[in-house]
């Protein structure tokens, strides 16, 4: 199985590149947010527990999210592989994902780290806000999201460097140029 973790700051192009990877390699897409909403809507046991945390304004525990991802992964067998979008975001989540995948005889194949200059990220997100009308794409919120990314999520890159899975991808240029770099990284692990 080809299991890809796509990583980068808000506005780095994760969604765009994920779509291209899925199309090129036939991978399944697992978005943590989609999985969480799906479980709650279906009122599964895990969904009910997650809803309880969310209604109390608390974060859903990593173990619960990993259990949900495991259910989704098990339901997709046999797949060519998976692209994980929005997960992991912390080192404990990365370790939990590794354990869950190892229990299924697989592991993360590569972690693609889309690297984009901060000024470009802000420009992209402001532009996206104008086009999509997303309320979280305003300058104040963008700066806050980037701060959270740098303090809480960015250290995850070091974890994957230690695992030998990290590949830095220059996230500047055209969508096609960036995707060429992504394909080169994936093809080197296949």
Structure description:
The chain is α/β, with parallel strands linked by helices and 190 residues long. The chain has one domain: P-loop containing nucleotide triphosphate hydrolases (Rossmann fold). The protein has nine helices and five strands. The protein has a five-stranded parallel sheet, sandwiched between helices. Helix 2 crosses helix 4 and helix 3 packs antiparallel against helix 4.
Brief characterization of the structure:
The chain has nine helices and five strands; from the N terminus they run E-H-E-H-H-H-E-H-E-H-H-H-E-H.
Structural topology:
Blueprint: E1 2-8, H1 14-25, E2 28-31, H2 32-41, H3 45-55, H4 62-75, E3 81-85, H5 91-102, E4 110-115, H6 118-132, H7 139-153, H8 155-163, E5 166-170, H9 175-187
Parallel strand pairs: 1-3, 1-4, 2-3, 4-5
Helix pairs in contact: 1-9, 2-3, 2-4, 3-4, 4-5, 6-7
How many domains would you count in the coordinates?
1
* Portion in strands: 5-15%
Strands of the widest sheet, in order across it, are 2-3-1-4-5
Largest β sheet strand count, sense and barrel closure:
5 strands, parallel
- The whole-angstrom Rg is 17 Å
| The CATH topology | Rossmann fold
The CATH architecture term is: 3-Layer(aba) Sandwich
N/C terminus separation: 9 Å
The named CATH superfamily: P-loop containing nucleotide triphosphate hydrolases
Question: Which residues form runs of ≥5 with pLDDT under 50?
Answer: none
Count of discrete alpha- or pi-helical segments spanning 4 or more residues: 9
List the helices and strands in order: EHEHHHEHEHHHEH
Shape: globular
Structural class: alpha/beta
Number of strands: 5
Top-tier CATH class: Alpha Beta
């Amino acid at each position: 199985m080809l299991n890809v973790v796509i990583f980068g700051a808000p506005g780095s192009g994760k969604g765009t590149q994920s779509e291209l990877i899925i199309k090129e390699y036939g991978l399944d897409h697992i978005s943590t947010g989609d999985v969480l909403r799906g479980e709650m809507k279906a009122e599964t046991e895990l969904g009910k527990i997650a809803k309880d945390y969310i209604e109390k304004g608390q974060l859903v525990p990593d173990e619960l999210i990993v259990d949900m991802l495991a259910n989704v992964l098990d339901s997709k067998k046999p797949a060519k592989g998976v692209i994980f979008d929005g997960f992991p975001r912390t080192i404990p989540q990365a370790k939990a994902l590794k354990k869950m995948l190892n229990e299924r005889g697989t592991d993360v194949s590569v972690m693609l780290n889309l690297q984009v200059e901060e000024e470009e990220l802000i420009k992209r997100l402001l532009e996206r806000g104008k086009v999509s009308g997303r309320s979280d794409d305003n300058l104040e919120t963008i700066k806050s999201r980037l701060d959270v990314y740098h303090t809480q999520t960015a250290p995850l890159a070091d974890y994957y460097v230690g695992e030998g899975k990290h590949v830095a991808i220059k996230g500047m240029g055209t969508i096609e140029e960036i995707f060429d770099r992504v394909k080169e990284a994936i093809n080197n692990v296949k």
